[in-house]
Task: structure prediction
Amino acid sequence: MKKIFVVLSLIATGSMFLSFQQKPFDLKASMKRGEELYISYCLSCHMDQGQGIENIYPPLAKADYLMADKNRSIDQILRGAKGEMTVNGKKYDMEMPGFDLTDEEVSDLLNYIRNSWGNKGAAVTPADVKSVRK
Amino acid sequence: MKTKAITLSRRSFLKVSSLAGGGIVLGFSTVKAASSILDDAELFEPNGFIKITPDGIITIMAPNPELGQGVKTSLPMIVAEELDVDWSKIVIEQAPLNTEKFERQVAGGSGSVRSSWDSFRKAGATARKMLIEAAAKKWNVNTAECTTDKGFVVHKGSNKKGSYGEFASLASTMEIPKEVKLKDPSEYTIIGTRQRNVENKSIITGKAKYGFDTRREGMLFAMIARPSFGKKLKLFDDTATRAVTGVKNVVQHENSVAVLATSTWAAKKGRDALKLVWEDDGPLESTPDYMEALNKLIQQKSDAPKRNDGDVDQAFAGAAKILETTFEAPFLPHAPMEPMNFFADVREDKADLYGPTQTPARTRTDAAKALGLPESKITVGMSRQGGGFGRRLQSDYSVEAAMISKLAKSPVLVVWTREDDMQGGIYRPAGMYNYRAAINANKELIGWHLRAAAVNSGNASRENSFPAGAVSNFRVDSHNHISKITVGAWRAPNHNFIAFTEESFIDEIAHELGKDPVAFRLELLDRAKNSPSGSVAYDIEKYRGVVKLAAEMGNWGKQGVNGIYKGFGAHFSFGTYVAQVADVSIVDNKVKVHKVYCAVDCGRVINPLGAEQQIEGGIIDGLGHALYGELTLTKGVADQKNFNSYKLIRIPDAPDIEVKFVNSDAHPQGLGEPGLPPTGAAVANAIFAATGKRLKKQPFDLRIEPGS
Amino acid sequence: MATFKLNVNNKTHTVDVDPDTPLLWVLRDTLGLTGTKYGCGIAQCGACTVHLNGNAIRSCSLPVSAATSGKITTIEGLSENGTHPVQLAWDEEDVPQCGYCQAGQIMTAAAFLSRKPNPTDAEIETAMASHICRCGTYTRIKKAIRLAAEKGGKK
Result:
């Protein structure tokens, strides 16, 4: 008899590749997905209420620098940020690495950041991210 | 359980230290590793593998470096089987380098189990025999009437039963038998059973100590500013460095400057504060220069082909059709999760080295040379290791640590940052592989010509790989491009890329001939069997066995069912035959690898659970590097510095994996590497099936035109 | 140098270090808690993950001066004797190979499951995507998190 050892597991869902373009943009759902990403990638520096760390990591909550330019934020998430920046009147100069995220993920993440802790901003769509990525 | 209070001798103290570094207790037993503090006279230590104390503690030494390949579990399983003990009640301890006691303390070439299978079994069986003899002597009975049962010697006639511990002292006085009888495999109770990693408990509680976690009395942390390739140190100013709190010393070693401090962070701040002036030390190359040089080489034949069956020139001259494809491999860093580090305490007349190394003997030899000490005055201990993938086969970082300790006259733990590790590395050589296939008017493969070239790799090819032996005119030329860049073995050296090229090209030929890729491989195997050309360096039946099994597991034959496309890849390396089917689909113009089915023939499987892990890890490693791995050089300096610019596979890309091992009584073979090589090809061939696009370069360019 | 009070694994420690020292090196070099690992120093690999007030954070990128106000939990303090459901699942699924990244993976998985006790596979992937395992134990990590969720839910 042939004795074999088997490892079997379920086929993973391909849900992360679902298309978002056809449906009307659901900001709430996007923010919810973005919160998970925020916890994984951003929280350790920008902290749980987006308050940042004084003099080291800039705040995201009610941050003028953040809300001033949506495309700059997309670019910074994709390619990182380097050099001095002024946020709410204070200067910061730490390097942030770029993150390897999909268009959908960057849009989810920014929708969460731009609409939490007192922030209110227009939705960022995967298409917006795509155009900055190019 | 009684414990003994015994004065520590120098020797037993060393044992305690080594145990503290790597000793573990299996299962949830509360047994302490008291074996370490007993007098030698009471300890039964018939060989380097086994220690049994009078109070019954059985310790099995794991002599080989453990870096995730599971040998700290699988090797002691072999000893424990022949010793006949309860696996859940033994202590396993990492042995330091000892070339007198152990044959091969190396983690490389997937060789730990396959080279030690006989000697480990014999070590266990020898100890068992001596314990039986001691019991027989004590009981005054015939040894032939005694047997063992999980840590006990049993006398059938009198029903006497005693634990190994009871006979330890007496056994230690017995003569070591020259001949021992090994168990019949049908009697195995440990080998072939699923055993979890013996260090799981310490790993999941954060107690496992890696090289980076080494802490010794008076030790300083050191970070080193090293020149990039092609540079040397002109001058440096350490004024600001010495002003950093915690910095204790700055020493220059050749073209590097080491900063020693009381903490890792102080060492890093001190190093950052160095003012360094580098100067050129010869010409520097960039990735495009390498590719140009390699591209020139693969246009040429070599004077001494690695293999030359039949006459390829004639075959190609008479061919009805010639297929030609060139594959490109980038440099890769090893990037183990634990960056390079090593501890060294070098004194006037001796040196103590400790840390993660795949080759402790090489470390000792090279350190002895550098330090000017005899090897007998150097000890090398092995920590648990956060991966290696070939990087820790080198001794640059351990010898460097030894030199820094010597120069600074201090025990030192040299630590590398991720950036140091990625930029100061030793890389998988970049390579180029040009394949041509000659097909005659009857649509038969009559000629195969590979011209391989790589940077500093010696032989860039694996000339006896399948389909060598199955093609009547078969030639392999191999070229070496010499450069200053340091390269070295990277998990499944050469195989890691060669398999992708061979198996992709076979797929391409099969499609050209209008044949099913699996059927085509089986046909080639038939040809290697019935009318071989030249030597055949693989076992045709085993090869055929895994090809058929993988095809069966992966439901080979139907493409596009529910949008799933399948690709096939197989390869023989390190004694093991592996075949894989990859399932991919294209979702929103993106490639998704859903599942990899994998058939393995590695001879007897010692620990099926650990074996599965190794194959799974190899597949994910092979997939990850095929998708993302690329290190580029600009004038000798790596463009990628850390994991933000050097991409490794992450969990969303990891496919499900199903592994089956062919049931086999044959000598066990390698497992740490063979799972990796076929994956790139299986995935690339599936992507071809899905999109019609042939991937010839790693990392894969997966841009798919919408609608394709 | 400056003095900081840290609450680590329910014990208060006073440490005298540079204010910009990342929490990671205070844990490892000052407090001797070497279970938390260094992997990249730029919050990309997750080997250094600890909990700060129950959130999984990257200790390599958090200056010690910013860690004084909260409760810090490291792998050594996740449970008594390694009995957290995530740790048990890691053992049961035999996840570790080299094991170096696993403390960080476990800390993130534990914080994640306390927020989302019954996650979908896609949610598991998102939560764990910020970690790197060079040995490729990902399929087992997924299984272990599913198992921990199952067992945790029954408690």
About this structure: The beta strands of chain A are 85-87, 90-92. Chain A has one domain: 25-133. Residues 25-133 of chain A form a domain with the Cytochrome Bc1 Complex; Chain D, domain 2 fold (CATH 1.10.760.10). The longest helix of chain A spans residues 27-41.
